[in-house]
Amino acid sequence: MKKWLYYGPIMLVSLALMGCLQMQQVVMAMTAQTTMTTLAQSIVINRNLPQVTMITATLTPTPTDTPTPTVTLLFTDTPTPSPTNTPLPPIEPTPLDPNFTLHVPILMYHYISVPPQNADAIRLDLSVTPMQFEAQLLYLRQQGYETISLQQLYLAMTLQTPLPAKPIVITFDDGYRDAYQQAFPLLKQYGYKATFFVFTQPIDTYNIEFLTWEMITEMHQAGMEFGSHSYTHPDMRHRDADFLVYQILGSKEAIEARIGEPVRFFCYPSGRYDQAVINVLDSAHFFGALTTQWGDSHSFNERFEMSRIRVRGTDSLDTFAAVLK
Q: For 245, which DSSP code?
């Protein structure tokens, strides 16, 4: 009995401690199990995330039909697209007959816009309204004219390559902004192309009255031809060689850098030139140059003095038709 009284409390304390330890182990085990279960669920979820993402990435929305725009022309006959430009040879070809002559009208335009109210006589003379221009294009289409480029005309003069039955060249001087806003859409609508002579100083200085390089690139990609009209549009007569080279080659190279092909034709600013200008053009491998002289006769021997037909703002459609005849 004495031993029990002595050892009994000690045994009770030991049993209590053992019970606490067992309880702690049970709790730890349960906690560990819960932790592992949560971790396992987390791993499963994380593994599934890339799969969900991949499934979502492969979903493709059902395409909707986009209406095709239609263009309504103002004439009944469908225009036949003009022949594509024949690439020019890298050097000037030897003509089969330098005196061989072609009669092809080269029309000369400047502004395609309604002149301002304070316009002077020169501006009125150079301004053909969009309505007039469209009426002229309609007349050309109805009469069977097909536009050609100066490249095609040059190859016909030198190598006597064939041309359409009724060829015509349409040219624009200076590079005004309305060439893009008014002339370009109408030319495309009627299936025609044209040659645009630009002087490049106002383009470089972002003059809003003139074309931009972006417009020129777009027009060229649509089949329009571009030529040089000098850098600042000066009187080219009685100038030294350095001045002429600066005006001619500076403009030529600037245009070439944008359209990606050689510029082979020049248009004399205000029609003023002399033999020194022709010599520079020839040495710079231009194939021809256009004047403001009236006429439609062209040959290799006169390739640097090609004549044109000016279209005036005061011309009626009857006058326009009579001029072509």
A: H
Output the pTM of the full model. Answer: 0.74
**What are 260-269's pLDDT values in tens digits?**
999 999 999 9
Residue 9 lies in a domain: yes
Inside any domain, residue 79? no
Distance CA 103, CA 157 (A): 10
Q: What whole-number distance in Å separates Cα of residue 169 and Cα of residue 192?
A: 10
Classify 230 in phi/psi space as left (phi over 0), alpha (psi -120 to 50) or beta. left
Helical spans, DSSP H, in the chain: 2-57, 121-126, 130-142, 150-159, 178, 184-189, 201-204, 213-221, 241-259, 275-283, 317-324
The answer to whether 228 and 255 are in contact (CB under 8 A) is: yes
Q: Parallel, antiparallel, or unpaired: how do β-strands 101-103 and 297-299 relate? A: antiparallel
Q: Please check whether residue 196 is in contact with residue 210, taking contact to mean a CB–CB distance below 8 angstroms.
A: no
> How many angstroms separate the first and last alpha carbons of the chain?
150
Q: Beta strand 306-310 with 106-109: parallel, antiparallel or unpaired? A: parallel
110 and 163 both lie in a single domain: yes
Backbone φ/ψ region at 23: left (φ over 0), alpha (ψ -120 to 50), beta:
alpha
CATH number at residue 258: 3.20.20.370
| Whole-number Å distance between alpha carbons of 109 and 126 | 7
Q: Is 134 within a domain?
A: yes
Q: Tell me the two tokens of residue 317.
A: 């459609």
DSSP assignment string, 277-305: HHHHHHHTT--EEEEEEE--EEEGGGTTS
Burial (0-12, 13-18, 19+ Cβ within 10 Å), 2: exposed
List pLDDT tens digits, range 214-236. Answer: 999 999 999 999 999 999 999 99
